[in-house]
């Protein structure tokens, strides 16, 4: 007799538990945020064909300033895909695979783009070849501001 009385109560409790979970799941944000690369980025590592060149070169003055208005400025002269300043945009604001850069002198240059978190800090990783497809440079940057 007690089982017949407890069965509806258990069914009601189960329903309330499941209905409560649905509410929380509907509030979960499942959309990838738009990537913001604005700021001044300094080199923390430079490799060529996988060989680390960081200790061989003076990288302290080399940086890229990506501004919110879609312009960039490269500081110092190192082997980089563009020199000076120009415009930039990501291939896709949420899921970018390349950074499209244009210095205004011959068209857009696509640079392979990654945006990893390394040791708790966001990095910007740009990879490209300079004329010779056998040499691939990878610059890893960290934001300064």
TrEMBL record:
It holds the Pfam family DUF5004. Residues 1-19 form the signal peptide. Keywords: Signal. This is DUF5004 domain-containing protein. It comes from Sphingobacterium suaedae.
């Amino acid at each position: 007799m007690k089982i017949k009385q407890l069965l509806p109560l258990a069914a009601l409790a189960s329903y309330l538990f499941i209905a409560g979970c649905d509410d929380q799941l509907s509030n979960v944000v499942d959309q990838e945020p738009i990537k913001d690369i604005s700021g001044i980025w300094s080199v923390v590592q430079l490799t060529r064909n996988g060989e680390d060149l960081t200790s061989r070169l003076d990288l302290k003055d080399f940086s890229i300033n990506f501004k919110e208005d879609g312009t960039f400025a490269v500081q110092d002269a190192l082997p980089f895909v563009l020199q000076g300043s120009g415009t930039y945009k990501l291939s896709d604001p949420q899921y970018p695979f390349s950074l499209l850069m244009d210095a205004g002198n011959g068209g857009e240059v696509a640079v392979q783009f990654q945006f990893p978190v390394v040791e708790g800090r966001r990095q910007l990783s740009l990879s490209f070849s300079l004329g010779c497809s056998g040499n691939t440079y990878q610059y890893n940057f960290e934001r300064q501001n």
